Structures are given as structure tokens and as C-alpha cells.
């Protein structure tokens, strides 16, 4: 009995001890959990503070960037207004040219000529008033002429080439263009221009070399009638202004042109123009005022696509109605004709274009000062082959071959009938 009682007492003591131990363990675990929760709350509070600081820093940085952008915009607004809508462009060309002459007159020795030449042109164009007004200018290279030439020591208007010569001397830069063009939206189809400007009407190099920029005033009005657009051009240009002496006159050019652009079908367009040029006193290289130029010019161009390539075919004819023919031995000295074809267009890397031209230009069909200088101006007939390839979008390599022959003896032009020339040109051109 006593033994059982002892055992019971021992069990109660052990249970109480175990219960006390479990309670202590539970209290310890609860304290640990409470400490962890407090630590987590402290960390969460720290994270909230960090996030708040980062957000504030971001707002400050964004505010700083916004202020800098606003300052840049203010600076741009403070820049001169004439910089807006201002475009710059130009080109530079290096040329190797080889002229092989064969004079039919045995008393004269043929002369071959090899030249290196360059051309540099650059300028600006700016528009105002919602692109209604365009003002531009361009500077270009060009050679001095002799004082005895028709240009009296100035540059030749039909070329901007400069030959490598004159003991490495500095080369001239001339004012090539300076003009304004007005296209009022209130009168659709009307264009008015003035200054030293590119040839603004339909033409080919039978009459105008690409480097000639006539000086004066010009206006055009055009109106569409379905697929046909009719246009009228009128121009007044002052070729030479003179005031000394009783027999000195200004050389003026009045031109009138009527034509149409006809979009026959998609990718097929025909342009036809009839032009009348009336020179008041001759621009010819002679002191005699016995040569007149009242010229009728008929120009046709057809543009189309063939095998995915853009193509153009043209014909051009000119007849001088007032040539007195005092200085030629041939009665037919007043007509000129040119026909040509071009396949391809140079716009981007890999583009290739080829062209062919035949021209017959009698001595006084048109003023020799202004038409194609590479072809030899007037009193010449022959063929021209050209090719041009885009090495890059802005760099081209091209070549031209001219097979030319003088048509008549001319004391005015100092030319001998039958003289033949083969000219080869190799060009590297960078456009920018």
C-alpha cells in the first residue's frame, strides 16, 4: 500500500515537472515569435522608408530632367528663326577627261588633250509662309576666261568645271544661283520666280546646258484637266546689260512656252512643249549685230517603266527663224535636233543608269554660249554614250564617251569643217 502510494506521488511530481517544462518551452517560443514579429515590423518600416526615399529621389531626378529639357527647348526657341526649314545640299565631282582630236585639214596638226578637273557646288534653300515662299542660293566652282572671250574674264556660264592648272593656285568660287520662288496657295497652279535661277521650263541640253542659270524673271500657270495638266511659261531674262556708246544695247531674252503633261497610264507619262525664244540683240561672240535669234523649239519626253526600270525617251528640235547666215558657207545653219534615251535612275546603292544621245546642231541654230558645253556647243554633230553606277547611296562612278564632228567652216566660231574629236570622261561624284 505504501509502495503504491509512493508511486502515485512520484507520478504526480513527474507530471507537474513535465507540465512546468512544457509551459516554459511554450513561453520561450512565444517570446521568440514576438521578437521575430517585432524585427519583421522594424524591417518593413525600414523598407517603407527606403521606398519613400527612392520615390522622392526619382521625383527629384525626373523634375531635374524636365527642367533641363525645358531649358533646352527654351534655348532652341531662342535660336535664330531663319534656321527653321533651312536645307543644305551640294555635290563634288572629280573628272578625268581625254580629248583625242583628228583634224581633217592636213595643214593643221591634231592636238590631243588630257585634263584632270573638279566641280564643287553647294547651297541652301529655305521656305517661309507655309512653304509658299522659297529662297535659295548656291555657290559653285568655275574657271576664269580670257578678257577677249564673250564673258570678259568672268566664268563660263555653261560649265562649273575647274581644270587642275596654274601652278597649284587657289581656285574661284562663284555665285551660281540666287533666287526666290512664290507659290501662292490662294492661286493654285501659279508660280512666280526671280533672280539667278535654274532653267525652270521644259528643255534639254540642245538649248540649255545643265550648268546655265539664267538671270531674270519667270512665271508659270498650270491647270489639270483629268489626266492632262496644261501649263504656260513666260520669262524675261537679261543676258547682257550695256550702257556705253551709241550702238550698245542690252541683250534681253523673252521666252514663251505652252505644253502639257499627260499621265496616259500608270507608269507612262508624256510631256510635250512648244517654246519661242526671242533675243533682243545677239549674245553671239562678235561685234557685228547681224546674227539674230528668234527660235522655235519643240520638245517631247516620254517616261515609262520597262522590266521594272524607269526609262525616258526624248526628241528636241530647234529652228532659228531670224538667222541671217552671214558667217557660214552652208545655207543650212539654223536647225538643230537631238534624240536620246535613258534607262535606269541613280537613287541608292547598286543603281545603274545608261543613256544614249544623238544631236545635229548647226552653227547658229541656238546661241552657242548656253547649250551643252561637253558636246561642243554648236556647229557639231555626234553621239554620246553614258553610264553611271551608285557605289553607295551618295557616291557614284560614271563614264561618258563623245564621238563628235564639226559640220562647217566658221570664221566666227574659229572652227574647221570635218574636224573629229573623241572625248572620254570618267567621273567620281559625291552628293550631300
Beta-strand content estimate: 35-45%
CATH H-level homologous superfamily name of the largest domain: Porin
The separation of the N and C termini measures 122 Å
Top CATH class of the largest domain: Mainly Beta
CATH architecture of the largest domain: Beta Barrel
- List the uncertain runs: 285-289
- Judging from the principal axes of the Cα atoms, what is the shape? elongated
Describe the sheet with the most strands: 16 strands, antiparallel, barrel
How large, in whole angstroms, is the Cα Rg?
A: 42 Å
Mean pLDDT: 86
Task: Enumerate the strands of the largest sheet in spatial order, edge to edge or round the barrel.
Answer: 1-2-3-5-6-7-8-9-10-11-12-13-14-15-16-17
Helix content: 10-25%
DSSP summary, beta strand count: 17
Give the class from helix and strand content and strand pairing. Answer: alpha+beta
CATH fold call of the largest domain: Porin
Short summary:
This protein is an alpha+beta fold. It is built from one helix and 17 strands. It folds into two domains: 1-79; 94-119 and 180-431, Porin.
Name some characteristics of this structure:
1 helix, 18% helix, 16-stranded antiparallel barrel, 432 residues, 44% strand, Porin, 2 domains, alpha+beta, 17 strands
Amino acid at each position: 500500500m505504501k509502495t503504491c502510494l509512493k508511486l502515485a506521488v512520484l507520478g504526480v511530481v513527474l507530471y507537474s515537472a513535465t507540465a512546468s517544462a512544457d509551459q516554459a518551452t511554450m513561453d520561450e517560443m512565444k517570446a521568440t515569435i514576438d521578437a521575430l514579429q517585432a524585427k519583421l515590423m522594424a524591417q518593413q518600416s525600414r523598407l517603407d522608408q527606403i521606398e519613400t526615399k527612392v520615390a522622392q529621389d526619382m521625383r527629384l531626378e525626373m523634375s531635374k530632367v524636365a527642367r533641363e529639357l525645358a531649358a533646352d527647348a527654351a534655348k532652341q526657341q531662342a535660336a535664330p528663326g531663319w534656321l527653321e526649314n533651312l536645307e543644305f545640299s551640294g555635290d563634288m565631282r572629280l573628272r578625268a577627261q581625254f580629248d583625242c582630236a583628228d583634224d581633217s585639214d592636213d595643214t593643221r596638226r591634231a592636238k590631243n588633250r588630257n585634263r584632270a578637273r573638279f566641280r564643287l557646288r553647294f547651297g541652301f534653300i529655305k521656305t517661309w509662309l507655309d512653304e509658299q515662299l522659297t529662297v535659295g542660293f548656291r555657290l559653285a566652282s568655275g574657271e576664269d576666261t580670257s578678257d577677249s572671250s564673250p564673258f570678259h574674264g568672268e566664268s563660263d556660264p555653261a560649265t562649273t568645271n575647274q581644270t587642275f592648272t596654274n601652278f597649284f593656285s587657289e581656285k574661284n568660287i562663284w555665285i551660281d544661283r540666287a533666287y526666290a520662288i512664290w507659290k501662292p496657295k490662294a492661286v493654285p497652279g501659279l508660280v512666280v520666280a526671280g533672280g539667278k535661277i535654274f532653267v525652270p521650263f521644259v528643255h534639254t541640253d540642245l538649248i540649255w546646258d545643265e550648268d546655265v542659270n539664267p538671270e531674270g524673271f519667270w512665271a508659270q500657270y498650270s491647270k489639270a484637266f483629268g489626266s492632262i495638266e496644261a501649263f504656260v511659261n513666260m520669262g524675261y531674262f537679261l543676258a547682257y546689260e550695256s550702257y556705253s556708246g551709241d550702238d550698245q544695247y542690252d541683250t534681253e531674252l523673252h521666252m514663251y512656252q505652252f505644253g502639257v503633261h499627260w499621265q496616259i497610264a500608270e507608269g507612262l507619262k508624256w510631256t510635250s512643249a512648244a517654246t519661242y525664244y526671242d533675243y533682243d540683240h545677239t549674245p553671239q561672240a562678235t561685234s557685228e549685230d547681224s546674227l539674230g535669234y528668234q527660235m522655235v523649239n519643240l520638245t517631247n519626253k516620254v517616261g515609262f517603266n520597262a522590266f521594272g526600270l524607269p526609262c525616258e525617251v526624248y526628241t528636241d528640235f530647234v529652228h532659228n527663224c531670224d538667222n541671217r547666215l552671214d558667217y557660214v558657207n552652208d545655207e543650212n545653219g539654223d536647225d538643230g535636233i537631238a534624240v536620246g534615251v535613258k534607262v535606269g535612275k541613280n537613287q541608292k546603292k547598286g543603281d545603274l543608269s545608261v543613256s544614249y544621245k544623238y544631236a545635229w546642231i548647226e552653227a547658229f541654230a541656238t546661241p552657242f554660249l548656253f547649250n551643252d558645253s561637253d558636246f561642243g556647243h554648236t556647229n557639231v554633230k555626234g553621239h554620246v554614250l553614258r553610264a553611271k553606277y551608285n557605289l553607295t547611296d551618295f557616291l557614284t562612278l560614271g563614264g561618258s564617251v563623245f564621238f563628235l564632228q564639226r559640220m562647217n567652216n566658221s570664221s566666227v566660231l574659229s572652227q574647221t569643217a570635218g574636224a573629229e574629236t573623241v572625248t572620254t570622261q570618267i567621273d567620281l561624284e559625291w552628293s550631300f
